[in-house]
Each structure stands twice: as C-alpha cells, then as structure tokens.
C-alpha cells in the first residue's frame, strides 16, 4: 500500500509542510509534523511540501516498517534481547 509518511526522527517541526499543505499535514502533540490524510497523493501542494522539507522527512511510498519494534505490543524491542513474551511476536521470541 502506498502511503504518505513523516519520519519523526528527521522532522524538526519547522512547519513548512503544514503551511504549504494543511490538507495532508498538521502538528502532533510533540510539535512535529504528522500525516492527517493519505488521499490525493498526487497534489501539487503535497509535492511542494515534500520538496520544501529541510530534512527530507516526508516520503511517499510503501508503508514504513521500523526495525526497532514489531507490532505485537509496546514492550517489544524486536531484537535478540527482547523479553516481551507476546504470542506470535515478530521478534522471534
């Protein structure tokens, strides 16, 4: 599935994307950009917002899967030291 993403590790909360394209972006509780709409991904404003991002935090592509945590629970570290104990955990424990 193609999805609009903001990498919160790169985002500095400058607000350029929110100002340029409020249809797709708003600030989250941490003061960083957040995707609010995943439709109309071909819009000119979205392209301008993506190109204006000073840190390159905005991407459009396949859903981002981080290697830090799996989706089984909040306690999973998704590594060999994980002790979350969830059934069907993606960390393999």
Helix content: 10-25%
CATH topology of the largest domain: Alpha-Beta Plaits
CATH class of the largest domain: Alpha Beta
What string, H for helix and E for strand, traces the elements in order?
EHEEHE
Name of the CATH architecture of the largest domain: 2-Layer Sandwich
Radius of gyration over C-alpha positions, nearest whole angstrom = 16 Å
Count of the separate structural domains? 2
Helix/strand/pairing class, anyone?
A: alpha+beta
Give me a quick take on this structure:
The chain is of the alpha+beta class and 93 residues long. Helices cover 15% and strands 17% of the residues.
Question: What order do the helices and strands come in, and which of them pair?
Answer:
Elements lengths: L1 E5 L9 H5 L4 E3 L5 E3 L8 H9 L5 E5 L31
Task: Give a verbal description of the structure.
There is one protein chain. With 93 residues, this protein is of the alpha+beta class. It has 2 domains: 2-62, Alpha-Beta Plaits; 67-93, no CATH class. Helix content is 15%, strand content 17%. It contains 2 helices and 4 strands; from the N terminus they run E-H-E-E-H-E. It has helices at residues 16-20, 44-52; strands at 2-6, 25-27, 33-35, 58-62. The strands form 2 sheets. The chain has a two-stranded antiparallel sheet. A hairpin with a 5-residue loop joins strand 2 and strand 3. Mean pLDDT is 84; it is low at 64-68.
């Amino acid at each position: 599935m193609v999805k609009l993403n903001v990498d919160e590790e790169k985002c500095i909360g400058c607000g350029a994307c929110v100002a340029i394209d409020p249809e797709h972006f708003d600030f989250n509780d941490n003061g960083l950009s957040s995707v609010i709409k995943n439709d109309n991904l071909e819009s000119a404003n979205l392209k301008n917002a993506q190109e204006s991002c000073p840190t390159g935090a905005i991407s459009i592509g396949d859903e981002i899967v981080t290697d830090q945590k799996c989706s089984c629970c909040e306690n999973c570290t998704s590594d060999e030291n994980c002790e979350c104990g969830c059934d069907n955990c993606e960390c393999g424990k």
